[in-house]
Amino acid sequence: MDAAHHPSALLTLPSGHELPALGLGTWRMGEDRGRHAAELAALQLALDMGWRAFDTAEMYADGGAESLLGEALRSALRGSLSREAVYVVSKVYPHHAGTEDLVRACERSLRRLRLEHLDLYLLHWRGAVPLHETVAGFEQLQQRGLIRHWGVSNFDLYDMLELVDVPGGAACSANQVWYSLSRRGVEFDLLPWQRARQMPLMAYSPVDQGALLTSAVLRELAQQRAVAPAQLALAWLLNQPGVMVLPKSANALHLQQNWQAANLKLDADASAQLDQAFPPPSGKQSLAVG
Ligand SMILES: NC(=O)c1ccc[n+]([C@@H]2O[C@H](COP(=O)([O-])OP(=O)(O)OC[C@H]3O[C@@H](n4cnc5c(N)ncnc54)[C@H](OP(=O)(O)O)[C@@H]3O)[C@@H](O)[C@H]2O)c1
After folding, report:
1. Mean pLDDT, range 26-44, rounded to an integer
2. pLDDT category, 9, cuts 50, 70, 90?
3. Domain assignment present for 75
4. Which residue range forms the structural domain that includes residue 166?
């Protein structure tokens, strides 16, 4: 593996704004008071290390993950970190995605995060609320300066096509879906479509919530290159154009490994062997859902 420049590359949104290609997930954090101090320390360590993008949701620990992230950000922002240097993403429940409910849900998220705006606000998955109502809510939030950009999550190509057809829907900035070595279905249609619109695909569960790391092939290829299996899996994703990668970790060593993954440049041999072990799709596959 060759060393490459770090911090990780920036991706460009359709609006021309940029966001980091590597961000930290927060699912399953903030659930347990007993782990509070350790999780807060992990987020503070991540900020010290240089992580600048954070992914959360009102769903995670019922707002607990947002509160925890807010606490970590507050102390960093009181120090030398500027708000403009951090990229914060949160998500709204589909049952809060009606125009007025969406605005109120965002206000609650901002209170928990102790922030005045979100950089990106996503519809967590598609529910019963008509898309045009949700888009109208996102537009109101943008007009009030409470969010910079909006997007969706768990939308397959047919959902995206419907979305860009509703009034204002073409302003969607990102779509967050499960994408990992073992879940490559998006490469067939969704990812090329998003690339053509310069709309980043945000890869969640990039190590399949840990399960991918038991793969014998991945472990062997990683060992040969003296890197951790997670680093190889993340380097492979970071190598895909237009993809933002969102590993979650609350462990100091893993945070360090994952951050360093952005320094690894995938060699052609590793790439070919990974393709053999985890073949790209040869036809349409339904979107994997976490
Ligand atoms: N939009 C959606 O519907 C959706 C769905 C799922 C996830 N997400 C977002 O994507 C983020 C990431 O996905 P995820 O949390 O499902 O799974 P993930 O990032 O694929 O895996 C997280 C698990 O892997 C472990 N891990 C991470 N780095 C490791 C390393 N270097 N070595 C060994 N183990 C490692 C973590 O444990 P430690 O904490 O001990 O390191 C944790 O158990 C979420 O946190 C969330 O922000 C979004």
Report:
1. 98
2. confident
3. yes
4. 13-277
pTM: 0.97
Residue 95 inside a domain? The answer is yes
The CA distance from 288 to 286, in Å, is 6
Q: pLDDT-derived band of residue 8, with 50, 70 and 90 as boundaries?
A: low
Count of the separate structural domains present in the chain: 1
- Give the CATH number, domain containing residue 209: 3.20.20.100
Ligand 1 centroid distance, CA of 51 (Å): 15
Nearest to 51 by CA among 7, 19, 98: 7
Instruction: Answer yes or no: is pLDDT of 4 > 50.
Output: no
In a domain, 92, yes or no: yes
**Residue nearest ligand 1's atom 30 by CA:** 254
3 assigned to some structural domain? no
Ligand 1 neighbours, Cβ below 6 Å, are 25-27, 55, 124, 153-154, 176, 204-210, 213, 228, 230, 246-251, 254, 257-258, 290
